[in-house]
Amino acid sequence: MSVASPQRARPGRGRLHFNRTLPFWLLLPGLLIIAAIQLYPALFTVYLSFQRIEPGTGRYIFRGLENFQRLFSTRQFIESIGHTAIFLVGYCVLAMTFAVLIAMLLRQRVKVTAFAITVIFVPWVLSDVIVGVVWRLFVVPQYGLFSPFFANPSLFPPRGISVLTTPPPPTLIPGIYFPPAPALIFLIFASAWKVLPFITLLILAALQTVPNEVLESAAMDGATAGQSFRFITLPLILPVLTVALFNLILGGINGVGMVFSLTGGGPGTATEVLSYLLYSIGFARLDFGLAAALSVVMTVINLTLVLLTLRLSQPQEER
Fold it and tell me: Which pTM does this prediction carry?
């Protein structure tokens, strides 16, 4: 006669409910912190974009879309969009191109000393303000290290240029702010130099995952180095390139420290990108309603560029 094994006691409904909701309670402190420092300011910015603060009393007065109408009707906003577009394209292309080249060299086991590696990655640990100050010292007209080079009439006819004070040349097409001022070009190079180590590190990590056997097989089949990179390496590292491009786009649109310390938006408004315009409206003019409206517009631009990048980075057969 067999003895029935004792049945395991089933947990009650309260115990089951607690087990199911335990992950939520563990995440709740972090979610509350995120809501306090990110979600609430974002929602308050949207609310503030429809308000006007009454001088003296500080009361909020609902004005509807007035702040957006004021923003879109200013020439300064239109100019800042053009400057931002030029900066973003030059910044992303320059940083991505040099990052890929440097990562490819490092992957080839090029012998680099520890000192050289340290120098390569120094910009990554510096703040935007410090980098801007250092690059500004290079081109200060009186004693800048590169000032004699830019002031040479033979290289920059007819009288040379001063990076920080020379205005932009006449535009080729009315309404299109191109070619840019020398200060904006210099700002692009400085910003790309700052972010280059981080992007290089991302791409180098992705290149390490590409199997050497596949590349060797392609070489044996007669594929050139360019063909191997285009048809093998590039599709395999495309997700990482997308992440790197995300980082560049978001940093390029929202970063203000480099513009603040390097050019201050000048000469005139030649380097006044959207982020610096936001700083000027919010902290210099104290027009918080207009600044909030510009923040909402910049959020829409950020989301649009990110979604467009996601779309373009998908393989052709998935579109």
Answer: 0.85
